[in-house]
């Protein structure tokens, strides 16, 4: 049922073609594999003609991507893997959330893909790469994003990781902002580039500049910029935030799936 891999290239040769069958839905694992970091765990699970790619890069969770197994098959796979958390398509994760489950939902997201931007109303702001002179502002935006979304626990380790991530984005030229003169109003990054697409993340606008169309205009500008180099742009949203989901759909993003992140309840950890 479960085949473990130790050789990274051998795993990629099996996993990438499977994931590319739905590249719009699988940009997260595809981007991680393209990055070249050696994962903690690489495995392929099979149940009949169904296949799940298992990829773990951090201790807290494993990524599950592919076909939905039966209820019993998914729970058996979880027992074998014995991870403290999982992230994957809703259909794959659902059996792990049955009654009396040790897991609870940490994050429920919509997965969107875009191939052509529907331009929103233009704003009198400037879209450009965020350079090193705005590092402090970007770090503050990034930390506020983490605390607001719960993308990472609000710990000192996460704060330092945010600083490192923001600085890497700035050095790579993959952090973008909307500016009013020299005032940074909002930011977003491009990440996990692959031959099939790239992902927009770290989308954040401070509270005082919200409800002005700034975030959607920034994302539209960034998506339009990225589509000159990639065939598709993907984006994850908070599924419970109906407003942001509608905003992204209005500029051309189409819902391609749901991604659920789960973690074990404290008493089971």
From TrEMBL:
Its EC number is 2.3.1.-. SUPFAM superfamilies: Acyl-CoA N-acyltransferases (Nat). Keywords: Acyltransferase, Transferase. The keyword Transferase applies. Residues 112-269 form the N-acetyltransferase domain. The keyword Transferase applies. InterPro entries: Acyl_CoA_acyltransferase, GCN5-like_dom, GNAT_dom. GO terms for molecular function: acyltransferase activity. Pfam families: FR47. It is an enzyme of class 2 (transferase). This is GNAT family N-acetyltransferase. It comes from Exiguobacterium antarcticum.
